[in-house]
Structures are given as C-alpha cells and as structure tokens.
Amino acid sequence: MNKREVHMVQLLSIVLCSLSITFSSSGCSSKSKGDNGDTGPAPTISINDVTLFEGNSGNTDFEFLVTLDKKSTRDVTVNYSIVSVSAKAGEDYIVPASLSLTFPAGETQKKLIIPVVGDDIKEGDDAFTVQLQNPVNGSLLKLVGSGTIRNDDTRVAYTNTGYDAPASYPGYTLKWADEFNGPSLDASTWGHQNGDGCPGICGWGNNELEFYTDRPENLYFQNGKMIIEAKPESYQGKNYTSSKILTQGKRPIKFGRIDIRAILPKGKGIWPAFWLMPEKSVFGGWPRSGEIDLMEVVGHEPGKTYGTLHFGPGPGSTQISRNFSLPSQTFNDEFHVFSLEWKEDQIKWLVDGNVFSTVNKADLGSNNYPFNEEFFLIVNLAVGGNWPGNPDATTYFPQWLIVDYIRVYQ
Ligand SMILES: [Ca+2]
Ligand SMILES: [Ca+2]
Ligand SMILES: [Ca+2]
C-alpha cells in the first residue's frame, strides 16, 4: 500500500465509523453492531496472474489483485508466501517485508505488489508464484497467483576471460579462420543443417529433442562471438529449437590443427559438440568412413570434454573415446580452447594447448583406418538424446554455445 492508499483507507475508516455503519476496519475504536451479524458463508479470496516485461533498470512492480467475491462486515486477512519457480528471490524479485494483507470490512480488492528487478541481460522468461494461506474471516478460492517475468533483453552475458590460443604455430600456416566478427554467418564457409533429421534419421539417430533452424533466434552474433541458442518453444512438432552449422563442401580439412575457443552451455540434457564427418564416404556409410569428435560435453558433466573416434565395419560404431576434466571449473565458466592436432595416421586432442589423448592408426587394430581423408567441421548444440538424457527441472533455458573463433592451420 502506498502512502496515498493508506491515507484513503484511514479516511474511509473515519468516515464509515463516524456514520456508524457496520464496518470494523482499523481506526475504529469500538466494535460496530454488525460485527457478528454475518449470515451465509464467508467471502472467498482469489488472486490473479500477472505477466509483465522485466524492465531494464530499477524495479518493475508486479501488481497482483487479491479480491473477495463479496463484501464482509468483518476485516478479512490473508497471509501469503512467494515461491520461486525459476525466478530467484533477491535476484529477480524482492520479497516484501510484510507477507499479510488485510481487507478492512467492506473492501473487496487489495493490491499485492512484488517488485521485480530489471537488468539488461538476456534471460529466459522467469516465474514465481504468490500463494495465499491462513485466511481469517474468508476462504481461499484461487490461492495461487502466477508471476511471469518476460525477458526484454538481447545481450547474452558471459565472462570474457579464459585461455586464448597463440595466433600462430611453428611449422603451421593459417589455412582459414572464422573470427565471427561479422553480423551474419559467412556463407562461403558455413551452411545450416535444419530440421529434426526426419524422415531419414529422426532425432538425428540419438532421440534428440531439438529442431535445428537458421533463424536469428537460434544463431546470432555479439561482440565478435557466434552464439547458438537452444530454447524451449513449440516448433515443427518439437519442443526445443537450436542450430547446427557445417562446412561440408566448402572447407575440406585433411590434417593440420584446429583451434576452437568457446564457452559451453551446461545443464542436464544439454549436448554441445564440435565434430567432423567425411567429405566423401570413401569406405562406405557411417561408421565405416569415420567420425572425429573434437569436443563433446554432456551438460550434467559440464567440466568434462570427450574426444572420440568412430569407425569399424558397422552397423554399430566401434570407438576410441577419451576425456579430460577441468580440475574444478566447468567449461561454462569462461573461455577454453578445444583443439585437434591431426596428421597422417595420428590424431591428438587438446584443451588449452595440452594434449589429453593421442590415437595412432595402430590403435584401431584390424579395423580400417579412415582418418587420412578429407573431413568437414560441424558445430551444433543438441537438446536431449540417448547419451545426455533429456532436460529436467534443473535445466535452465535458454542455453548458449558461445564461439569466439575457429582457426584451421596446416
Ligand atoms: Ca530487462
Ligand atoms: Ca534480463
Ligand atoms: Ca571472435
């Protein structure tokens, strides 16, 4: 209640009391004769739902209306609590000092104000609920009010620190690079692979949940970074959208060094990947012509990256997979550089310049070694799937794969 409202209530009380009408709001010093004269059931109490944009600074007042279905001759009071759904108390909204409302007798509507904290950082829509409880002289009808804080921002926040690779290496020359400094994807390097894999390999062969698009909602640029955003939305029969880009047919890679500087998303059911597939299926369909996974992280293990080769006679994959874990951080905390050093009959995986796996041709045993051929690069952010499992209530959306650069040396 603001000062003016307080004043109005006091004024109303004085007027009502002085007229000896049957009200007993605060301010009346003696009981009115109608106090115990109510007949029929007590009024019901309901709260509405509120949806508003967050705002960019200060607080935005979420004004819930709590209403009685009829006037009462008695004061009606109700307590309430605020329950976080995805919004965080103190960070996204402010819990009022008083968690109680009083309807002076005769009044049927009160405002319940929850201040929401504005900022200029992109988030998902956040939610909290206001839950009415412990009514006195009334009964609860609609006791839960939903508060939906709509995102109104476009700037993705991230920590701009972390490992940065050297710009050159002895014995290598830069073959091509994308520093992602432009406003759009360089079509001479990249194409999109859209959809959900259907009808050929629905869910991309892994029961993934996303539909890939080339819309700016799912892939965009900010301060020299490419951002792939996975977001929950109903789209083309799927419940999540994201993006997948590939250099197929445009930038064939055979041997050399690949450096990718990125901040990875995290959370259950989130699956970012940098990987390579053969330009030509020289030895036949997957997995016979090989697959090189430069980086795969499953979001419930956000500090652990996997480097994997898939090969073998099929139809299932034979594979060699090794992983590297950060000592304490996650790959979501700041930038890291994921690299491949690839030469004839040997592939090495690196994080921040340190080798964590080396596979030689001999390690494939009697299997055909398909990795001395041209491959193309794929960058994608999957949601759900057999390996990471599906997102759960702990998974925050949207999720961002933030790539600073991709550099290919030979
Ligand atoms: Ca805002
Ligand atoms: Ca915001
Ligand atoms: Ca960049």
From TrEMBL:
One record GO biological process: cell communication
Positions of the GH16 domain: 167-410
InterPro entries per the UniProt record, alphabetical: Beta-glucanase-like, CalX-like_sf, Calx_beta, ConA-like_dom_sf, Glycosyl_Hydrlase_16
A GO CC term assigned to this protein in UniProt: membrane
GO MF, one example: hydrolase activity, hydrolyzing O-glycosyl compounds
Family matches, as Gene3D superfamilies: 2.60.120.200, 2.60.40.2030
SMART domains, per database record: Calx_beta
Sorted UniProt keywords: Calcium, Hydrolase, Repeat, Signal
Pfam family, any one: Calx-beta
Record-stated family: Belongs to the glycosyl hydrolase 16 family.
Protein name: Glycoside hydrolase family 16 protein
Source organism of this protein record: Paraflavitalea soli
Lineage of the organism: Bacteria, Pseudomonadati, Bacteroidota, Chitinophagia, Chitinophagales
